[in-house]
Amino acid sequence: MWFKNLQLYRLSRFDLTPAAFAAALAEHPLEGSGGGMDMQRLGWVPPKGEHEPFVHQYGEQMLFALGVEKKLLPSSVVNQFAKARAQEIEEQQGYKPGRKQMKQIKEAMTDELLPRAFALRRSTRAWIDPAGQWLVVDAASVAKADEVVEMLLKHAEGIAFAPLRTQLSPTTAMTDWLLGGAAPAGFTLDDDYELRGVGEGKSSVRYTKHTPDADEIRKHVESGKQVSRLALTWSDRISFVLDENLQLKRIAPLDVLTEQADADDDVFDSDFALMSGEVGKMLVDLVAALGGEDRKE
Fold first, then answer.
1. Which of 37, 107, 171, 285 has the maximum number of C-beta atoms within 10 A of its C-beta?
2. What 3-state class would DSSP assign to 129?
């Protein structure tokens, strides 16, 4: 259950006990749409599995999840049924429906078909570390992270947080690391990185399985490009990709950690314990490598 992508927030307040937090989420569960008319529903789901608590606790660490159910109703299906209905109406009234009437027909067909539409479910996990003051959302996009953030602020009182900000921008730091040919203490450079232009053209070049060459990087920087994403390994334990927006992607525990997890009977708990412990340490080192935290309002 290791998170694959990290959207990072710094907790400034968390006044809830795990039990109170779970109770707050349990009041707003994701309910089945049945024959409802909503295109999308959001609600909290147990992160470990059905019939489990809404907050999974291991030590002080808390894991929770937002569920999203979205109905699939392709426009091609609506158009097909609307066309058939329009033909019926044409036969009745003696002339083809106009633009305004066709719009009304499509809206009526959408309402008619929606209760029968197939519903697709997904969930987004998040993790709270009260001691380390972290809120971490496992989302590849800001939009999915925003769903969790908005619902969390809406349903859980006693919590406050903001996106993590550092003194150095990731772009500036990553460019310096590649130009210097060395990562900051505790990290190593991997052979996957991308440079992107900062002007209107925003041309980009990406290298995969290519050992960084300082002279080559310098030419790109002199032409107006900066490093926008860079693969790193922390302490020979976790590999990841850092991007220009301070998002961490493609998180992967290395062999030394997976062997520890395999030795535990409860894989879910061992994974969560290892992830929260190791990623928590890694984030401290990463913030330090980026010049420390920017706490200015």
1. 171
2. strand
